Amino acid sequence: MSKILGLDVGSKTIGVAISDAFGWTAQGLKTIHWEEPNYESVKETFNQLIDEHTIEKVVVGFPKNMNGTVGPRGEASQNFAAFLEKTFDIEVDLWDERLTTMAAEKVLLEADVSRKKRKKVIDKMAAVMILQGYLDSRT
What positions does the domain YqgF/RNase H-like occupy (predicted)? Predict the structure, then answer.
């Protein structure tokens, strides 16, 4: 069965989450370090992820401003989604991710995770929240 990849795309890191085969739950997979906008630097990594995990679709977090407008980070997400679609001929959905990084931070704070550890997992956790929100919306 094919799976769905969830991404929290930042300027230095990309949090990656993956769905289970049924498309019910999202699990954190990894954090990829990159230098935006050098798409070539992550091309091989995504090629491997898509092949290895039989990915049928990618959900990219789409950070809109609170008033619904699209700012520079939203445009960067749109550009990254277009790169994935064009390069890998795969379906890509943008998912409104307003507040996911803050929500991820809150969960980690409540779990009493140290600042150093939070920094390492925040992007992956945000990717999980983006993907889980998307999966939940489909049921």
Answer: 2-104
CB 3 within 8 A of CB 17: no
Q: Which domain holds residue 108?
A: 3-137
β-sheet bridge partners, residue 6: 17, 59
The CB density around residue 64, as the number of other CB atoms within 10 Å, is: 16
Domain tally for the chain?
A: 1
Tell me how long the chain is: 139
How far apart, in whole angstroms, are the C-alpha atoms of residue 120 and residue 98?
Answer: 21
d(CA 98, CA 138): 19
- pTM, full prediction: 0.91
Helix axes 100-110, 115-137, angle to 10 degrees: 120
CATH number, domain of 130, equals: 3.30.420.140
- For residues 90 and 2, is the Cβ–Cβ distance under 8 A? no
Cα dihedral sign for 124, 125, 130, 135?
Answer: positive
